[in-house]
Batch of 4 targets.
Target 1
Amino acid sequence: MDLSLMRTFLAAYRTGSLTAAAHQVGLSQSTVTAQIRSLEQQLGAQLFRRVPRGVVPTTVADELAAETAPHVDALVAIGERGVADRDDPFAQPVHLAGPAELTAVRVLPALAPLVRRGLRLRVTLGLADELLAGLSAGRLNLVVSSIRPRGRAVVAVPLMDEEFVLVAAPELAAGIDSARLAAGDPEPLRDLPLLSYAEDRPIVRRYWRSVFGTRPSQIPAVVVPDLRAMLSAVVAGAGVTVLPYYLCAPELAAGDLVPLVEPEIPPLNTLFIACRADAVETASIKAVRTHLLDRARDW
């Protein structure tokens, strides 16, 4: 069976779209359509049903994908990296993307041993939606995402759970009624400056809902789309905010920040590491993905 036909079939199967499949394999849509028809003729069975927003695989397609995908992906990976590169897992650079703070504090330091072994990284920072779009389009190889991507085209597994903590500088915290906060009443925070990552307070809202069972009433005094900048401002006494524990752990340990509430079950957010399904076995991508999953056990 022709490898190019199978690659096109898997692209259509995973994306649910002939247009997206054509973009992924670098062919015209008419060529993709012709290849799918050729494969259907060889098998004597229909593989997809057309629907308004793409194609839906038949049970024959489900069975074919399950049986062939690992082998086709492995052959494609060998072809893409070239025969001469088989003994060098880092022959090609890895295009890695994720949120700026986690990438800086956890991901890049964790990958230092691989860089010393020859890994070449090209790093993109940004928000989950735009990074996952880049992954699907083939511009990125690996994405650390706060959103679990859907569909067959992308494989995503949990990387870590980030724990959130409500913090302030010690001088500011000393004037807050901690007993009322511990009882689930956020009223002592009402008149304090609130720092937020965005105008709609996504991290703060999640924390308030989980710990206090309500929505925050404050309009942010400072909005800055950089958690490290928020950390610096809060340490300086600018106000209160919610930060991932991994980011502010050194300041908490040093006493530069204090937790205002210590709930029995702190709010968590799962982060995923995602790659395209047809690239899971590519040597360099597999090495980075496996290494991060191993190191993240200690995060």
Target 2
Amino acid sequence: MLRFDTNLRYYSSEEVTMEFQNEISEMISKMARGKQSVLEHFKTYFASAAGTTSSWSTSISWADTDLRRFMTEASKNAVLFIEAFYDACESLIEEEPGTAVPDYNIINWVLSKHSLAYQIKPPELLILSGKKKLELTDILPISIDQSAKDKIHQSLAEANRLLSEGRDKQAVQEILWLLESITTVYRGITNENNSTIQGKYFNKIIGEIRRHNKGNATDQIIIWIENLHGYLSAPAGGGIRHGLDLKEGILMTRHEAVLYCSLTTSYINFLLAEYDRLAGKSTISVK
């Protein structure tokens, strides 16, 4: 069973939309595959969420109609609606062995798709207040070709999707990959001292950028980038790139993952802006 603030059983500031109900109903139909017993199973949970009881319907058609009615009544409290669906799915695994039941990641994806600020992280139901997407600057250097721009935006969209689904480690891995990839645009760039960056991968390139900016703000920012990257990569730190130290490593929490993603995104924005300055190019809006 999902755990959450028990006060939410008696009040809720949010209802679920008809579109969300319809998508959940479609998922139930796919699980039922014409079996009335599965519809009756879900009826019991949604009736309870609506504060009433359920009895066996006279036919599968009526079972579907009754289920939809209970779902509509339960929709007035988003928390109880989500709990009913999740708990019904979990118990269905034992009651109807072999049924293809969606896991919590799929449910989180549907919640995010319909802009419902909740996330299942078994056994907890989390309320995502003030959820904000990761954002790159509205402009990217004109010297970066469209293919590279597309890869940047695709990676950021993937990090957002993973974060919204509660796949925190994977979201941090994706945004760290993007950070490492962004630095490769610096290869061949010449700075104010006529020194050309020649490194081919993150550690070499970022090290050269720092050496070329000793004593200024960029020097300090690169130190912060190196520290974050090093911590997240280390087995006893974030355990993102080289595995987690099973004796000393600590699994990251949700709020830590959001922080890492936000910090890394801000560093990506800085590196793109600094690249644009060094490249001496103008910028255009990304459509």
Target 3
Amino acid sequence: AIIAAGIESVDRIGPCKAEVTIEKVEDIRVAKRRNVIERAKEIVIEMVKESREELEDIAEAIRQSVQVEEIVYYGKDHLPAGPNVEKSDAIIIVEGRNDVLNLLKHGIKNAIGVDGTNIPQTIIDLCNEKIATAFVDGDRGGELILRELLQVADIDFVARAPKTREVEEISYKLIMKALKNKVPAEQYMENYGLKREKRIEKEEETLDEEELTYKKFFSEARENHSAIFLNKKGEEIGRVKVDSLVDELQKVKAHTIIFDGITTQRLLDVAFEQGVKIIVSPRMGEVTKIPKSISIITQDTNPKIFE
């Protein structure tokens, strides 16, 4: 302050008169400190922003990982599906794996994908058992798949993604809106002038003579809890209790075994030694080795035999 006052007392600079006025006295240390504080704020803001983005990336990566782990492959056609398809009373049929993943991302776990333009038998069977909603893309491809579904499967409701949009990309809000606005399949077909083809499914048309023989003997085996041995011509050559099947099998030369039980590794080993070619049983246990010479028919491979 004294120096500033001294400077203001100067009234001549060289040959000229002068008047000096001090407008402001500033401590440069304070100014530097202010600059340091402002810069520190900027650095902290950048750090927080980067940290938040990194946390969001980590959370998204974990969520996607969980979604991939949750997805299952259902039925003999190994279709991509949510984990609740088996136990849910209602299912949502979508076009493919990415659609299933997007629904999983938003907490919908009862979706299953047709995974192609040909509708698999697994989808047809599920539609016969559960309330089925077809949820397809809002484009031409979605329309074609929907028409095929309506012709071959027992679809109850129809939902569509917004026009030109795909199920795999739409948000939670649009998914919920589309499912909320679903319409009965019959109403949809009527609105678009579609007709469901009448399909006559006779057992004799879906099972060949050999399979009908297996079905007949399995029905008897289930009723009596027995195992039936057939020769190569499909004729019965013996009948024993299931409990003694393995022991009795060692005494006969059977071509086919039919019983209501579980095919075990021990049974397979003995059957192989005895030259058995076909085993018909609804379920298969934990088997590690299946001989190439033996054909096993179960409920998963041919369910109509066991109905």
Target 4
Amino acid sequence: MKKLIQVFLGVFLLLGQFVAPSVSAEGEKEFEGEKVVVGTVSDAALELWEYIADKALEEEGIELEVVVFNDYNQPNVALQNGSLDISAFQGHPFIRSWNADNDGSVYAIANTLLMPLGLYSDKYDSVEEIPENGVIALPNDPSTLGRALLALEIAGLIEVDDEVGIFAEEEDIVGNPKNLEFLLVDPNFAALSLPDVDAALINTNFANDAGLSINDAIFNDAEDIDKVNPLYINTITTLEENKDNPLFLKIVELYQTEDVVEKLYEVYNHEVYPAIDVPLPELEDAE
């Protein structure tokens, strides 16, 4: 993880040396007239990918159509049925979990960014104020649920069995001194649960869509980034059979540039960590 932090801090220094230019010196456009359909799940991501679409058309003659979904499952369904070419929203654990549950072949071809997972509350200003028998809303998808429980452990609210890794479930809680209760909710509706619970763990993109900033959170799991597993980095994905598709890798190349990193900071209000130079991990490392 120390290496991961160094990559984050050094991204702007390294980009100029190691990211290949998008257009050849001769001005050739190998993919002129090609079209790629990309799916994502938030307003901020839409703004980012619209910027990349303009860049792709201007520099490479590629038409990039951006489709926004309102949940995490539909983009992968669309990848599998061929209505999407690539997607950009999910971390490595979600890919693994979704593939296992759906006999899928979704495959990460590049890392993009790390989003903090924030604990928000309409009632309390600190983690310490959360009361005995309090209710906390958690995302109901298995991969994000594991991260949410580990975030609560980092916050000092619970203890999780060390043996379960990143796919923790409620039954893996081995310490709960405040006798907290947990309400599982759809991640994209988590912000709507705030009036009815003591706190809710909300993904950054959905928090932003609800008008919340990571600065509004009473805790986020990236406050000590050394404790965040790099498997939680978001990715650009396609189907495994297309992992070497040169057109899709050209889109990755267009993403992995300094101007896109700057745009990323702009649309996410400096609330995310660029991770374009972090090597793709093997999901078996999550065991």
